User: What shape does this take?
Amino acid sequence: MANNIQHYIDELHQHRIWRSVFRSGSGDSNLHRAQAVQSNVFLHLFAVKSRRRMLEFSATWYLGALTFGTFLVLVITGILLMLYYHPSVPQAYADMKDLQFVVSSGVFLRNLHRWSAHAMVFLVFAHMFKVFYRGAYRPPREFNWVIGVVLLLITLLLSYTGYLLPWDQLAYWAVTVGSNIASAVPLLGQKIRFMMLGGNSVNANALLRFYVLHCMVLPLTAIFLMAIHFWRIRKDGGLYAPDKPAKEGTK
Amino acid sequence: MSDEIKAPTTPDSGELSRRRFFVKVGMTSIAVAAAGTGVFAYQFLSPNVLYEPSPVVNAGKPDRYPPDSVTLDPETAIYVVRDPEGYFALSATCTHLGCLTAFKQELGIIACPCHGSKFNRDGVKIAGPAPKPLPWLRMWLNDDGELMVDRSNSIATKQLVRV
Assistant: This one.
């Protein structure tokens, strides 16, 4: 039975249509595995080989991968939340309440989005601490650290813009305070605040601007930089490993 | 790279080759277009018409305010203060980071819930991080005898409207 299934799978892998999608074909050799990674648009960002000990939990605590995981959860739940949310002053708060009490699974998706957002901020910081204390930011990886800092800022901006969208008292005053902090910038402060809010007060224009930033501009920028961030891991010589191998017995 | 494929006819003098000339023209036009795009982006992102509430507020008849009182209108973020001699208007927006302040009747002071700034009923700062006093706003009586307040127009000295 098992042999039969294996036979069908092998046949499928040799089929013309399968081979037109996955050109590398099947095979257990390292060459085939490397080709499978290299000829895949997503996987080719990563190295075809990495050290076994770098894939162990202790090496990275998987913090970067977990951050990316929360980001994926946020994208999926966020798109679903967008189907029931209108970024307008009369509707935003009511839509948020509808998601909690009326829409099927709405409260689950909204809470998943919220907790994932908290988790992502925590994981980004944890990831950066791990990279910092292991010294993995040093050359030749210094540019990837810089991209990471920009991604941290985008994560925080995503949190800040998303905070306004429920349009409750907490959101309103948080963004009032935040936009007034922006206006403390010398000379340009008032202009920055005006552009940020699209007006002189936190109102319909501000809600719409924050919505567009939260759902389009910032996520697309984050995805763009993340692609470079992952690709640079390969280009900078793979996941960081200290020069001296760990003492025998501990690893 | 460009040195290797330089046209052989180009003399070594400081003269501009055709290739370099067109590269310069191209780069300059891209720079001009980029600057123009920046200007257009700035203008596009700054709204020309705002559908915001008017800064001029009708605060109603003077006699709706009891003698010696401080009344907050949270919708318009102004205090109408009635002194023994007359009326004046005070902005209720904290000068620290823009939160709405509230008048504490039992203490006779104005307090901000966000970061703890305190003001007396003349708007003078008593405590907290606020850098400036609450501004006095221009107030006048309209033809129907109602108090009008211009929130966009703060005045340097306290002026009472006598009714």
Notes: Residues 56-155 of chain B form a domain with the Rieske Iron-sulfur Protein fold (CATH 2.102.10.10). The mean pLDDT of chain B is 90. The beta strands of chain B are 56-60, 69-73, 78-82, 87-91, 102-104, 109-111, 118-119, 125-127, 136-141, 147-155. Chain B has two domains: 1-51, 56-155.
